[in-house]
């Protein structure tokens, strides 16, 4: 929807994003033009993630600003549906630093969203670790599938619903069960 207004696709790329081109066919992309451009996608929109509050059987519907891209349908929230716009993340810098993954490329169906157990990729999470902060509320088969990426000084850039940007580390976003990812804030605290 915003493509006609963007003059340069490179705005979606972090210069530190060095993942190699994956060995996936053209059918993984929304359209052939992006497959042929081979443009990096270093930022993602926040969708529903796994949280301790909601349990690990399904992603928390109170998290994220919308998305649903994994099912090829998209939805969003109106500004009035955020309890605290200045304390809710809308987008984040999220590129995957291992080769052969299509998520780091512009135009891939699942690559533009940050959903489910993607928080395992956030820089600053210790891997492996037995510390509760580093453990994730994901199904057991998915908890430690990937090492976190290096990021910037062990953190990453986060864009909030009110459009301000912050560099935060993993413990800051992990605090209180990923509270800053929740559009609808819980009334109780969760540990870690």
Give your account of this protein's structure.
- The protein is mostly beta strands and 192 residues long.
- The protein is built from 2 helices and 7 strands.
- The protein has helices spanning 32-37, 170-178; strands at 43-49, 66-67, 75-76, 89-93, 113-116, 155-160, 165-169.
- Strands 5-1-4-6-7 form a 5-stranded mixed beta sheet.
- Strand 2 and strand 3 (75-76) form a beta hairpin.
Instruction: Please tally the helical runs, counting DSSP H or I stretches of 4 or more residues.
Output: 2
Chain-averaged pLDDT: 82
Helix and strand element order: HEEEEEEEH
How can the largest sheet be summarized? Answer: 5 strands, mixed
Task: Please tell me how large the radius of gyration is.
Answer: 16 Å
Structural class: mainly beta
Low-confidence stretches: none
Measured by DSSP, the beta-strand proportion falls in: 15-25%
Strand order of the largest sheet: 5-1-4-6-7
What key attributes describe this structure?
192 residues, five-stranded mixed beta sheet, globular
Describe the structure in brief.
This protein has 192 residues and is mainly beta.
Which helices and strands occur, and which strands form pairs?
Layout: H1 32-37, E1 43-49, E2 66-67, E3 75-76, E4 89-93, E5 113-116, E6 155-160, E7 165-169, H2 170-178
Parallel strand pairs: 1-5
Antiparallel strand pairs: 1-4, 2-3, 4-6, 6-7
């Amino acid at each position: 929807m915003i493509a006609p207004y963007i003059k340069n696709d490179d705005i979606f790329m972090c210069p530190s994003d060095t993942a190699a081109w994956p060995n996936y066919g053209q059918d993984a992309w929304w359209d052939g033009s992006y497959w042929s451009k081979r443009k990096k996608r270093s930022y993602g929109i926040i969708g529903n993630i796994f949280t301790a509050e909601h349990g690990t059987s399904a992603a928390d519907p109170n998290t994220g600003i919308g998305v649903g891209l994994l099912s090829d349908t998209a939805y969003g929230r109106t500004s009035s549906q955020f309890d605290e716009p200045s304390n809710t993340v809308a987008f984040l810098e999220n590129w995957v630093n291992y080769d052969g993954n299509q998520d780091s490329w512009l135009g891939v169906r699942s690559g533009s969203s940050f959903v489910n157990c993607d928080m395992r990729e956030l820089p600053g999470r210790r891997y492996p670790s037995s510390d509760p902060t580093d453990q994730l509320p994901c199904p057991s088969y998915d908890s430690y599938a990937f090492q976190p990426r290096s990021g910037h000084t062990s953190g990453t850039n986060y864009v909030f619903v009110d459009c301000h940007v912050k560099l935060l580390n993993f413990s800051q976003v992990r605090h209180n069960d990923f509270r800053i990812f929740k559009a609808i804030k819980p009334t109780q605290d969760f540990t870690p």
